[in-house]
Write a structure and sequence with these properties.
Number of helices: 5
Distance between the termini: 19 Å
Shape: globular
Length: 245
């Protein structure tokens, strides 16, 4: 099992796709060359184009006898500088990162100022319209718990169910940077970015915090706000909570 950090700016997301470079394709290529066997990784979270990660999880099978803890060192000598392995360890043969009881934490960052700041342009969404963080937090609290999040996922989702559990969501400001940190059992396609886009509408004063409850109950993507840009989103943490689902 690899814990993978990456700057997603130059990649077409995590998942393997034809004719484009993805995080998964780079890991497969580098691992296959290192181990002299065909390697195909399985990721815990299939992040979108431009989304970043501090700790996504990837697993793979190999016949190699290299100690598990050495993989991080060997791979970091071969990977591009915008992908780095933070940890490598052995896990049971039947371990699948998307079939475990786990919690994922994402953070969406907004740079809220009169003018953009160049050093934040790749890792936050810029808006000059002042945002009311208190109202955003009030709206966010309606999302905590188990709900049908159909209003907050892409209409192209292939998920068997749109019910998910949100354990915690916090909206905080540190000078010009606003962070939306959300922890849940799992997330639908574009779910966090749509939540962020909806909270931004509340923060701008276009919608009241109470409207969030109506959006949630509608189970209609058209009721929620726009999908916020990918650059502001980072997968912060993946935590295991026991055995399989």
């Amino acid at each position: 099992m690899l814990t993978v950090a990456y700057d997603g700016t130059n990649y077409h997301g995590w998942q393997l796709q034809p004719n484009v470079v993805t995080i998964e394709s780079v890991l497969n290529e580098v691992l296959s060359a290192l181990l002299k066997e065909e390697i195909r990784v399985i990721g815990a979270s299939r992040t979108d184009t431009g989304v970043h990660a501090l700790g996504n999880i990837a697993v793979f099978d190999t016949q190699a006898r290299m100690p598990a803890e050495k993989f991080s060192y060997a791979l970091n000598q071969r990977l591009p500088e915008d992908i780095r392995i933070q940890d490598s360890r052995e896990v049971p043969l039947d371990f699948h990162p998307r079939r475990q009881n786990s919690r994922k934490t994402y953070e969406y960052r907004i740079y809220n100022s009169a003018f953009p700041m160049p050093v934040y342009r790749l890792y936050s969404h810029f808006t000059y319209v002042p945002l009311d963080v208190v109202s955003m937090q009030k709206a966010a609290e309606y999302l905590v718990g188990e709900h049908d999040f159909k209003s907050f996922c892409s209409v192209n989702t292939t998920a068997e169910t749109t019910v998910r559990t949100i354990y915690d969501i916090a909206v905080e400001r540190a000078e010009e940077l606003i962070s939306i940190r959300i922890t849940g059992s799992g997330f639908l396609y574009n779910m966090v970015r749509i939540i962020a886009g909806t909270l931004i509408e509340v923060g701008r004063g276009n919608w009241t915090p109470e409207r969030m409850e109506r959006i949630l109950q509608a189970c209609d993507r058209a009721e929620a706000g726009p999908t916020a840009p990918a650059c502001g989103l980072t997968l912060v943490k993946y935590e295991l909570w026991g055995g399989r689902k």
